[in-house]
Amino acid sequence: MNPDIRRERENASFNTQILTNILDGGAEKTRRRREIEALVINDPDFQHDDLNFMSRSERYDAAVKKSAQMILKLRDYGISDPEEIYFYKRVVRGNFHEAFGLHYTMFLPTLYSQCTPEQHKKWLPLAENFQAIGTYAQTELGHGTHIRRLETTATFDPSTQEFVINSPTVSSIKWWPGGLGKTSNHAIVLAQLYTLGKCHGLHAFIVPIRCMKTHQPLPGVTVGDIGPKFGFDEVDNGYLKLDNIRIPRENMLMKYAKVEPDGTYLKPPSDKLTYGTMVFIRSMIVGESAKALSKSCTISIRYSAVRHQSELRPGEPEPQILDYQAQQYKLFPLLATAYAFTFVGQYMSNMYHRITGDINQGDFSELPELHALAAGLKAFTTWNANTGIEVCRMACGGHGYSRSSSLPDIYVTFTATCTYEGENTVMMLQTARYLVKSYRQAREGQQLSGIVSYLNEPQRVQPHPVSSRPTVVNINDLSSLVEAYKLRAAKLVEMAAKSLQGELQHRKSQEDAWNNSSIELVRASDAHCHYVVVKLFAAKLSEVSDTAVHSVLNTLALLYALHGVALNSGDFLQAGLLNVPQLGQVTQRIKALLAEIRPNAVALVDAFDYRDEMLNSVLGRYDGNVYESMFEWAKRSPLNRTEVHDSYYKYLKPLQSKL
Amino acid sequence: MNPDIRRERENASFNTQILTNILDGGAEKTRRRREIEALVINDPDFQHDDLNFMSRSERYDAAVKKSAQMILKLRDYGISDPEEIYFYKRVVRGNFHEAFGLHYTMFLPTLYSQCTPEQHKKWLPLAENFQAIGTYAQTELGHGTHIRRLETTATFDPSTQEFVINSPTVSSIKWWPGGLGKTSNHAIVLAQLYTLGKCHGLHAFIVPIRCMKTHQPLPGVTVGDIGPKFGFDEVDNGYLKLDNIRIPRENMLMKYAKVEPDGTYLKPPSDKLTYGTMVFIRSMIVGESAKALSKSCTISIRYSAVRHQSELRPGEPEPQILDYQAQQYKLFPLLATAYAFTFVGQYMSNMYHRITGDINQGDFSELPELHALAAGLKAFTTWNANTGIEVCRMACGGHGYSRSSSLPDIYVTFTATCTYEGENTVMMLQTARYLVKSYRQAREGQQLSGIVSYLNEPQRVQPHPVSSRPTVVNINDLSSLVEAYKLRAAKLVEMAAKSLQGELQHRKSQEDAWNNSSIELVRASDAHCHYVVVKLFAAKLSEVSDTAVHSVLNTLALLYALHGVALNSGDFLQAGLLNVPQLGQVTQRIKALLAEIRPNAVALVDAFDYRDEMLNSVLGRYDGNVYESMFEWAKRSPLNRTEVHDSYYKYLKPLQSKL
Fold first, then answer.
1. How far is B462 from chain A (nearest CA, A)?
2. Cβ within 8 Å of B, A 103-132
3. B603-649: per-residue pLDDT in tens?
4. What is the DSSP string of A321-380?
5. pTM as predicted
6. Which residues partner with A224 through β-bridges?
7. A45: how many CB neighbours lie within 10 A of its CB?
């Protein structure tokens, strides 16, 4: 092991293992997770060369191979608990995706939740045994966010008891679904239902797209891969054009809405029933933000401990770059963010499961709050993690730009989360709608509960001159900082609500007023989410009993909160929560916290407990043997298969002879 | 043409052509640039399928082919003016790089500037006719920023009149030089010169690495490609390990420093002589920032004009997404930034040429300022453009993630500029060193000149409570905003200097004080650069005589300045340059400016005058026919070469039969 990184571990002030157990939810969970991870890591069937050395077709091929093996192995091992399956898959996938992703996350769950008993009997055995391999085709070439305007039609023909599915325009071609291009032989297609001459809006239909025997596209079906993307090379995101495809009436998912044989339409009892999956996936994405960022921090902090460069003091050896304050200032706030998001992810997962229980008992009361929280936190965490991954990459200097660091792979895979499952700005505006509504209810005297209850409190922010305002924040006290974030959020929600009001007074319509207040609305949501994150991080500390771990987490939480104050100092000054002299103290305190974290930085990323096989990064290796591995990796580059590249004979030599 | 985008052009308030001429530096320049661009666009030899459909080896092959053709064609056309060559190459390259990049930008210029007359006679004909294809090998696996610690050695052996070049360790392997892996047969190698038992620091040596007849690596040379990267797929960035390679004494570049036959070392007359190339390249990068960002704005704004989504008013057709304030707030400040950086790039290029003239006449007086400005602005513009490209990409929704948008290509190609030719944080700290030095000189009564002369002025910022301070800014007046940016910079330079002083008073060494003030130092540089950009944008306006163009550029400049105030409101409040009520007015003013820019947005990106062939983006097409092109592009995806992918027969069918 590299002596620098060994020394870092020896000097840590806390026991890494204890922190890992906290992150896993208990020592037994850590043990079992590692056991499952080892099943993949020690399995020769899953070993292959770096995917970055392959063409896209080869990468897709490798992904299908691994997914097929995974299905058989999980059955052999008898692993069926969803969390354990997730542990297993996470290692198989590495920094990429699996070929049957949407079959698991969308096709099967939709069948489970929206089939009638008869449909269950027909489709589940086919889907569970992969005779029907499926995807979920919603987004169209011209329609993403606003699904009500999807153009695909499903017209009921009572004479044959069939639906006729059609893509009437280029912009109506289904576009983007994962696994659609090459893998799936079925798709759940979202289409505008027409029956007896009337449109009844979007419904879901099971559409066979490829022959189950030959895998050839069926007549009338144009299906293919949408071409290379930023990432997701291993996934065949696809297009699907349907020309008067006929499917039997029974292929409409009819658990809730129905079309009877005579064409009569029966509408569903509630429109909240389809909320669930969406909220679940957004909650999961919060956890994925934490994982992508914690992986990136692991790589960049370990590398910064072994990388020596420049000089702090003339004549002395080059210091570890982790000793530079500028480097600490880049990486440690992100490390704190990774911990914050991990705890927020745990909270969202717990909240989701609790509320799902309520919903199953008919209690929908907490759903709007969960919905608003999932939307905003999905946007807040993915945006922050997205930027953070790139900061980590660039903090590794040139080598971060090499695919051997895996940081480019982590980025291109992760960045899609800012757009899919609800575009982030749209998400922020959804949360803002809930906040403004809550604010108005509070102003009207209604008592709010849950996380927005702070909007009940009369605003302490007074129209005093800034200097004479009472100082609210004790910058050394986490609970005081939580309070300050709360008041900032309250202030910004109020400002957004007042902007709306002002626009309405200028005789704008509700819709124009909303559009003309977007800047304030997004800021309000952002401040609200920031408050929630700081609050949940602080709350987590009370659960930690180990003194040394508590101390280091407390330092991280303070750094997270103060760094956010520094970045948004205008808000805090404007709201009178901070005064100008305190701003200087915030910088000083941040520096002191960086210095406190420095000796524990490597141990803090070790606690995330990513095996080298999961990081797949020469810079992030546990043993710190970076340069040797990088050289070995480079030698395997496909361009090195021959000493002299063909292009020499084709172009260089002829050029030289001509000049 | 798409009717939406046609309407946008019809409604613009100014003549696009006039603005294009301003950007080009005159109507004749525009004409000639277009003429040269057409030479490439109409040349069937340069037409090929999308590089994103190719493997890396194929892309490298295509790049070598194009570079070889380009050399012959430029000679045929008789194009030899550097600017005209640049116009030509820019179209050939598109969003990528050329195979002989370093031969042109480093190998040839180093030979020109550092060869003796005898060396010129030998090497220039070889290099100009591509018999010697060269690169510049400085960076090593373990050494980037701090070149004084490079490990490669060149030891003079008087007995044979040779230098022995050696890579003593893994970390000393040359790493990253473009064209080193496969293309070059020579490298200028930076190595520690040893003669008569003494080390004389870094010097440059011409080292043959491949046989000029067979292109095979020479004995003792280990050379290859460093493997796939985030971008630069078409470039063979390489590694080079030298095991006791002997080169004749005459292969040391001896225009300045010399080693005589008996081993006597003669040192160079000045160490400023090698500054030039570095400063030139950094100045050029400022212009590249403008280009990458203006391309990205062109794509995202055109697409936002043809993309319809969601609803502003119930029942009405989906609006253009450019009508959403949230979308305008993402894109228009970036559009303003692209214009700002374009003008800063022009300024840097002019300043470089002016000062180079002075230097050639022995006047080095302005070099330190140019050096500091180039470093800081390189960092400032690349960081901002880098973030901006990604905002543009994500503002295109899911389709921005497709390689067909070209936004991923623009990003991965551009982002490397944040690291190469001086890592950005290191650059910011270099500028800070100049600022602090200037600040101290001013405090000592010295009269500063040039761009830092504002540090002479006594700080108007008083330790008054914020509310009672005189308001400095008139937020509707550009020159008042320039003044505010200046005072903010002055304040932050002062704070950085005081932080240093404070650390020194705590008995820290100079070096530790510097390190412990990094946060303030980087902020000071950032504020200084921000001031320079706002100032130069404002200055450019005075050169514009066309009223309509002046008006729209003035709107952009105000938006650029006010958006920066809003993002850094804490600084302006802290320095008493703005008061709290004004902050609300800033937001209102920004909204008004967004609305003013809205009808001119498409015309403003049209004025950048990128031909479709240069953007290579289905979303950024001039005619706005986005969806049809996207479908056509996708059909050509390599995964669509067969209807059924091989992996079906290999894994899916067998899996289905087992379950």
1. 12
2. 129-131
3. 999 999 999 999 999 999 999 999 999 999 999 999 999 999 999 99
4. GGGSHHHHHHHHHHHHHHHHHHHHHHHHHHHHHHHHHHHHTT--TTHHHHHHHHHHHHHH
5. 0.97
6. A239
7. 12
